[in-house]
Every structure is written in structure tokens, then in C-alpha cells.
Amino acid sequence: MQLLRRKYIFWRTEGDGDPMIENTRKEGESFFRQGLFQRAFSRFFSRAETRRASVSCCCLFCAALFAILNVFPAGAQIGEVLKQDEGLPWRIEADQVRYDQQTDRYYAEGDVLISRGMVKLSADRVSFDQRSMMAFAEGDVMLVSGKDVLTGKRMEVDLNREMGTVYDGTIFIEQNHFYIRGDRLEKTGEATYHAERASLTSCDGDSPAWKIVARDVDVTVEGYGTAKHARLYARKLPVFYSPYLAFPVKLKRQTGLLAPRFGYSSRKGVEYDQPFFWAIDDNSDATFHAHIMGKRGLLVGGEYRYMLQGESQGAAMFDVLDDRKVDDGQGNNSDYWGYDNDKYLRPNQDRYWFRMKHDQQLPEDFFARLDLDIVSDQDYLREFKSSFGGFDDADEYFLREFGRDLDEYDDPVRVNSLNISKYWNLYSLNAEGRWYDDVNKRRHSDTDDTLQKLPYVSFAGLRQPVLDSPFVFDLESEYTYYFREDSFTGHRADIAPRLYLPLKFLDVLAVEPSVGVRETVWHIDDWDDYEEDETSFSRELLDARLDLSTELARAYQVDSESTDSVKHSIRPQIVYEYVTPSNQDDLPEFDEIDRIDRASIVTYSITNTISTRYKLPERTAEPGAGTDGGTDAAPAATYGYQPIGRFKIEQGYDFNETEQDRPFTPITAKLDFAVARRLVLESDVSWNTYDNWFERYSTAVKAWDERGDRIFVEHRYTRDRSESLYGDLILKLHERVSMFGEYERDVKDNETVLYGMGLLYMASCWSLDFGYSREEDDIQYAVSINLYGLGTLGRKYAGREIANPFEFH
């Protein structure tokens, strides 16, 4: 056996030429000149007919490394890292390298390190069998690619078949902070891997807080895995078993089963929901789920999401349920399975809900938006408000992805619309077909007089100058065709231009007179159902407005690191509005535009605003943000203002109500004020000065601290209609433990609408969420375990999302 004592050896390939051997030390050059290296590997060079003649021992080690990296790409980064490092030389470090002519093997021993760029393989010993093309690494084997790490006691690689095995190995995937440990980690195909008696966890350390132990685990390079006979352990305590489990290994989408969800509800019984995710292609995917409810049956649902060119995208969702329970008024069915919010029963068993939103870019900068919302009965969305994939989930998703939410869950009238719009700098065009689906009238009434807009077209112009004159104008116009299945239908066109003359006296008093003209025409095309003899109508209205305002402001210097001054501004305003009288009793009536009452009213208000001035970083300075003047003042673009308080009080005097001796309108006031850095007060009231009572009011308090405690309380009141109290709380009991709860009460009817509470434990690699809630007659228990890097098992608490705290502005 010949011994080559050199610690550093480089290997690289230049262009299409042969591999080259280099040495990092001067004595290496003499080693090459003496011909010792070539004589030591003469046997290998003699096999030029089957191997490249210039490949050395180092080349073989590098070829073995390349195959190892392809066999065990620890996570997503390895393929990318290899591509980035293709032009770099391989570096091999070892205490000694030997060649055995009898066995045709090459050996490297003692702190072996083979590296290229961000890829490194280290072991105590590495050998290569030229006859079988097998490479072996033993003793603290570690393969590092970027931030991903593969370790084991020993590693075997078949270079011909590009397959291999790591014994007592661990794969660490940095992207998910995910560990996969197994007795045998084996490559079984081009991009598939198999592990026997494996464990999965995202926790650090030899004794993880949680792990999933499975008999067989299969993983793909794309980052998706399955486990058979999986058992979830909390430390050493088994807490969950699944015969089959699918889990993500990285963020790339992959077809397969998602983590199951389960819970309990008094109206639904024991619940189990199993989602299945289908990664159709790069631009679309779907999720199907089977929701088993012990008392209600099987609910089958699906979601389809897709992305098209530009801003075009869409999502469609559906649910179908053959309900075992009905609200037919028989026995206790209404008490158990109905709701008291309306007079209608729900005798149907076939229940469904379809919802969809689609955005579509069109030629010439037009844009289309489609909204669909079709439900089987008036109780469905109340029944499945907080269920898996129910109203709350869909409403949140549509608002986040499309900027448009759904109608309220307890609204029996669902809006379906197709809108096509285009916007210019000063004008906008909207064309829309809008269908109001009144579920109760559709299901329970012989006639349906729901008013539909098919279509509605509006054209509007923003305030803009009239040529070079001091006047400005704006415009509102629309055309609507109103359709009803069981009542008269007709057309209406309305146009309302307005002319303004903004003036300012002594840079103190702002005066703005304006005049507007409204022309409205109707044509009834279903004359038989209309009470009047005529079919065409018109109306002309003239209105005038005078707006007077001024603003007084003063800045107060303060000593603060973040604020250098506080500004208080007072804006008094007086507005007079006049609308000419018009007899409209004989006109068709579709909506509020058809009845515009005469007006002669003056409104006076005072608005107080408190703002703080702070200095902006130079690169993010706001253009036009002002200073207090002076030739030596800082540049205007280096300061910004942040409102911290606003209080407006307003009242009107209606000259048309003098005969009733009640010309003064109620006093209204609105307050938004940051009492402290983390304490916000909001209030809105209306006070009747003649009867000395509140017409309505609402008051809300929001508070939070750096530790994570949060509280929100709101009281709402509308005279002779409703009064409610709502609050929710997050209390940090410990660095890892939080308590949360919510409560809502109908004060007017002296009834509790909902209440709930729970605990949240958050560890470094997992969290436990337990909650109890009761809404109307439905009692729900929710338990969820979030295993970081793997997903959530169970059902989250139906109340306010704890992971996304309040957003205060």
C-alpha cells in the first residue's frame, strides 16, 4: 500500500479539458515533479478505456461527494447551492491518503474534509471502491449545504445507481427548522427517500419537547413527507396516534393530506375534519375536506384557488351537507336545531354554500370583479360560522386576498355581482350587474319582490378646474335598470353636476359657495303592476351650499426623544344647505334617490385635532411636511405629523322644522384619542336636546402593553332598538402562558350572546391552545396543538385570533 502524506489537495475542471490536480503548498509542486503521485496511481490511470484517464484519487473522492450530495440533499438548498458552486474547485483535507492496489480502494483518514463553496462533507474516514463504484464515509459523518445539515455514523453511496444509505442519521432542514432522525435514511429513487424507525421534530436537543415517531417515513426532495403508524409524543408521553400522516418538509406546495382537525360542539357533536391538498400546478391548487360531525353527518367541501396573468386571480369554495337534523317545528326540533332570529323554519336536509371571488384584468385598463354567494337556507351561515372552512375562515380569506369580504353571516340577503370598471386621473366608470338573493323569500314566499340592479352604470368626475377659471366642478351620474320577479320593473337615469367657487379672505377665512343641478328620469316597462297611468316621469332639483371655515393652530415645544413639538388646531365650520321643494308623491320609488326631501338647514361644528411632530430619517422624509418657518429652520421634508387626538362636535338648525318647534338637530360628537402610548379611547354619541336623552352612543377602550397583555371593551346603544356590551382580553400569565377570553351581552334583552375563555401555551417549538365558548345554544370545545414546522392538529379557539393581536392606528 502506498501512502501519500499531504493534507490539502484541490481539484477542479477547466472548460472541457481534463480535471487538474493542484497543491496548496510549495512542497506539493516538487511532489508532482518527482512523479511520485503519478506512480502511486498508475493502476488507475491504466483504466483509461472505461474511466477518464486524468481522474485522480481526489477526483474520485469528489465524484463520490457529488453523488452523496445528489443522494442526500438535506432540504431545499442543496440543488441550488450545487448550481451556484459549479465553477469552484473541490478542496479535500485529510491527515493522510492511501491507495490499496490489491483491493483497488482509496482511503482518506484523520479529520477528512471535502468541500466546495457552501458544501462540506466531513468524516473520520472516507474510502472509495473503484470496482463497485461505492463510496464509504465513517465516524461523525456530517454533510453541510448552506444552512442544511445531514449527520450520521456512517454513509454508503452507490455512484453508478446514485443511491445510498446513512445509518443512525439526522437531516436538519433550516428552512423549517426541522429534524428527521432514523436508523436508516435511504435514497430509493431519483428524488425519494425512505427512513426506518424515524422521528420528526422541530425542537432542538436530544430530548425534544415533542416528536412524531413512525415506523416508516417517506420524504421527497420537494419537501413533502408521509409517515405510517405515527405516534405523537410530548417528551416521553404518547398523546396522539395516526395510521397515516402527511407533513410539509419545506414551504413548497405539495399534493397530499394535511393535518387533521377535530373538536366538539353541542349542536354538531364530535367533529373530525380531514383536508387534502392538491398542488395542481404553479398557478393553481385546491383543498378538499371531509368534515365528519357525530350529530349532523358528513359535510364535503372544497376550495379552488388560481392565479392568472397580472392581477387576475380567483377562488371558489363549496360545501354540501345532507343534514340529519331539521327545524320543521315538530317536537323539540326548533329548540335544538333552529334559531330565534327570524320567524322561518328550516325543514330542508339538503344544505349547501357556494362562494367565489374573481379578479380579471381586461384590455384598455378595464378591470372586472365577480362576487358570488349562494346559500341553501337562512340558518346555514349561523350554523357553520366558526366551523372548519366556515364563514369566518372564508370571510377572512376573501378580505385578505381580494380586499372584499362577505355579507354579514346573519344577513339572509346575499349579494351576487359582476363589476367592470375603469379609472382615469379625474374620472371613473363602473358597470355592474347586482343580484340580491333573499334566501327567505326564495324559499318561503310565493312572491319575490326583491329589487335587482341589472345593470347599474355610473360615471363620476372628481373635483377639477373649469378651464382657466377660478371655478371647479364635479359630477355624479348613473343609469339603473331595476328588475323584480313579482312586481313592476323600470329604468332610471340620474345626473348631478356641481359647480364650486373656492375663495379665501386674508388667508384666514375659507369661503366656498356651490350650486348643483339634479335631473332624474324614469320609465316603467311593466305597466300592469304599476298603480299610476303614466309610464315615463322626470324630476328637476336645484340645491345650493355655502361652506365657511377657518383654522387656528399653535405648536408647543416638548422635551422628548421622539417628539419635538405638539400641535393643537381648532377648525370651526358653518355649512348652509338648501334643496328646492318638489312634489315627488307620484314618482316611482326604487331607492333613496327617488325621494329627496326639501332642505334648508345650517350646520355648525368645531373640530379639535392634536398632533405630534417628529423628525423623519432623511431618506424617508415626507415631501411637503411643514416646519414652523424661519430662514434657519430645518428643511420642510424632514418632519412629519402624527395625529394622536381628534374631537368633533356638531349640531344643525333646520328651518323647515320651525313649525314643529324642533328646529335643532341632535348634538353629535366623535372622539378618537390616544390617552397614553398604549391606551386608546373612541366614542361616538348623539344627544337629543328636546327630550334630554341619547339617541345613540358607542364607547370603546383599547389598551395593551409591551409584555403582550391586551384588552378591548365596547358599549353600544341605540334608543328603542339595541344595547350591547362586548369585551375581550388577553392576559400574559407567564412568558409562555396566556389566558384569553371574550364576552358579549345583549343588555336590552338581558341575555348573554356569547362568552368564551381559554389558555394558550407557547414553547420554542410548539404551542397548545385550549378554549371553551358558548354562542346562543351552541357549546364548543376547541383544542389545537401547533407543532412548528409541521402544522396544527385539532381546532383553534373560535374567538379573536390570538396570534394576530389588535392593530391600533
In short:
Helices cover 8% and strands 56% of the residues. It is mainly beta.
Task: Provide a descriptive summary of the structure in words.
It contains 9 helices and 45 strands. The strands form 2 sheets. It has a 26-stranded antiparallel β-barrel. It has a 15-stranded antiparallel sheet that branches. A hairpin with a 4-residue loop joins strand 37 (679-688) and strand 38 (693-704). The longest helix has 15 residues, at 57-71.
**Mean pLDDT over the full residue set:** 80
Q: Give the overall silhouette.
A: elongated
SSE class: mainly beta
Helix fraction? under 10%
Enumerate how many helices there are, as a single number.
9
Largest sheet report: 26 strands, antiparallel, barrel
Global Rg: 37 Å
Beta-strand content: over 45%
Extended strand count: 45
Distance from N terminus to C terminus (CA atoms, Å) equals: 77 Å
Q: Flag low-confidence runs.
A: 1-83, 620-637, 800-809
